[in-house]
Fold each of these.
Amino acid sequence: MKRIRALQVLGSLAFAILLSAAHAAPGPEAVNDLQAWQVITLRTSLGAGHRILAYMEAQPREGNLDGSGSRKDDFSALLLRPALGYRVNRHVSIWQGYAWYSFFTPASFHENRLFQQLLIENDFKKLSMVNRTRLEERFIEGRDRTAVRLRHMLRLAYPIGKSKKWSIVGYDEFFVNLNSVNPSPSAGFDQNRAFLGINRKFNNHVNAELGYQNQYVGVDNPFPDRINHIILFALNISR
């Protein structure tokens, strides 16, 4: 029975990702790219009854791994994201953060972001669920004003085996631009990210994840949309 439930969860996650990809399926003119993202996160409490939280994320990204693109260098972007949070209760926390995003190829530009976040974490027997809603104020180089974006992620994890060291993990995150800036982005759908992979828990403080992420990016005309096929590795540390 436990194996059947695990397979049901895996099937549901896979179906959700395939459905997301099908819903966002662009025409044959879309640009495809094979990428690798590495994510390192650190989350800790700063005292005050463990209600004050701190978070740091570093995320280097590499593109054009299959050599099909025009650019010659693989290192394409770097994102750094610190944040402070307040734990409302054991399930709910609110956050204020900053992100620095630098994009190197095929053209170089920089972006600074402020963001506010609501994080809801729940366990339903073995199934772990995370709902994350984030509002971003994006200060993009070369734009005439601040771009505002809303994004929501639903993440599920289900353990495999009695040891609970291994888990099936899946999530989907939807991005919407709330306003238009010149020359881009435009208000409306921005992108969707769908992930399916495996998580390995080493102890109560460290876990790692490896899997596939499909990123569909809607691009303003006359440029084609993008589909990024991403090998994603994450190392997560909590204290």
Amino acid sequence: MLGVLLGVNGKEPLMDALKDGKYIVKQLSNELFKEDIVKKGEEIGFLNIGNKQTKLIAMKSLSITEYPGLKINFSISIKHHLKFPINSNQKIGYLEISLNDMKRQISIATTSKISKPSITDKIHDIYKAINI
């Protein structure tokens, strides 16, 4: 955050500017607050492979200073080529958090082991994809 105070006149412009600056900071501090966006170990979604489902968790925490008008968007990005088996607490991608024009990434992991999908699982996925 950056603040600029211009046009302060009078007998003691520097002291007046400091007083005005203190007032502005006090007013703004009522609009700012710390927000825990995600906490380490928090469940943030699910991963479905075949007919198996596992929870996805954040591998670290993220807190920000939030203010009115801040837009927060979330998306999950999974590695394109996962190698099986996937172990519990293995990093498999990122939770991407957009804060207006700023972006943050937090590694995500599974909560349980996932074995390589069987041929039956792969056929099941094809049927789901074409809605049969």
Amino acid sequence: MNDNKQIIIGITGTLGAGKGTVVDYLKTKGFKHYSVRNFLMEEIKKRNLPINRDSMVIVANDLREKKYPGYIVECLYQKAKENYDNAIIESIRNLGEIETLKNKGNFYLFAVDADPKIRYSRIVGRKSETDKISFEKFLEDEKKEINNTEAHTQNLSACIKKADFLLDNNTTLDDLHIQIEKILEKIIAD
């Protein structure tokens, strides 16, 4: 990567689209991973709430409302800045988070999307505590997060529209990696 500047990549996208797969690939390129999900899981445990997607949404919205919309990613950004790593901040779900990171400079937002049936089969396959849901609940959860207008809530649709780069993850892992490589070449050339 570029030795002259720290690069921060934010990852947004629909549920089960492959954000973690993009993160895994970027880690092989020397990026350090900072996870909104892990940040929220720690907070959920502190609050003794059940570990599920509903708790994640409630806690994230509460922190954004009580602090400010970009609070969670600001905490993760500060950790990355201290280490001066090229970094990935995964699970950007709010426009305030994007604004916070864009104001830092050297920030690029990647959005990942795929067909809903493909995405659902992926979340079932990963067997996470927060993913033990029916297809109907999966679609309902996504509907709650896709188009909110309050500043402290999730708005995946608006975040995807703000992305610098869109990754289509409907085909193979190799195809996704090729897309990522092309994007990294553009970023490095900047």
